[in-house]
Amino acid sequence: MDTxxxxxxxxxxxxxxxxLNDVSFTVNRGDIYGLIxxxxxxxxxxxxxxxxxxxxxxxxxxxxxxxxxxxxxxLKHVGAAIETPAAFKKLTVKQNLTLAAIQHGIxxxxxxxxxxxxxxxxxxxxxxxxxLSLGQRQRLGLALALLSQPDFLVLDEPINGWILLASCFSxxxxxxxxxxxxxxxDFQPYFDRVISSLNxxxxxxxxxxx
Length: 210
Ligand SMILES: Nc1ncnc2c1ncn2[C@@H]1O[C@H](COP(=O)(O)OP(=O)(O)O)[C@@H](O)[C@H]1O
Ligand SMILES: [Mg+2]
Prior knowledge:
The protein is of the alpha+beta class. The protein is built from 6 helices and 9 strands. The strands form 3 sheets. It has a 4-stranded antiparallel β-sheet with strand order 2-1-4-5, with helices on one face. The chain starts with a strand and ends with a strand. Residues 14, 17, 19, 37, 39-45 line the site of adenosine-5'-diphosphate.
């Protein structure tokens, strides 16, 4: 089985505060892998460590065959939407994606249109990011993260992210979104095995899409 990501005994301290203590898990190619934990459990911290937005204190992270912090190629194959999406508020949806396409060296303009369509923002293509709803901003964040066709996608704020992914793949975005806005989201149908449970705070779920 192809290993995409492996965390071994990862710990992170902010000053004297221990945010993560000895976290280990593995994500294989084809897995949809979920981290569920209460506020402050360390989910975002883990994602920031994986994508090298934050330096590792101890332990090791192997991403696409390369070990942090020596990611020569790995990050080029990763798409991420962590915390607030990296969109420019004064630019429209399309302008944001056009700018990101230039940064990624993507010449084919059709890729931009396809991504806007995939996340269901066709009607908002010429709307400035600042005028989007929270869910729409997250859709833009996903479109930006998907633009370079990454091998590994990291999405923070799992509820919205999951709903979005689930709805994109099931083809019923509006229905799914309106259901979940008003009710507690039931994760269970989207996962097929519980990997591990640490300290009763963490629940790791995984589902293979292959
Ligand atoms: N840059 C930072 N400096 C100090 N403490 C931080 C920093 N980033 C996160 N923390 C702390 O680490 C803990 C985990 O935060 P975070 O990973 O954002 O949690 P989650 O995403 O699970 O809600 C929290 O207690 C938070 O206050
Ligand atoms: Mg968080």
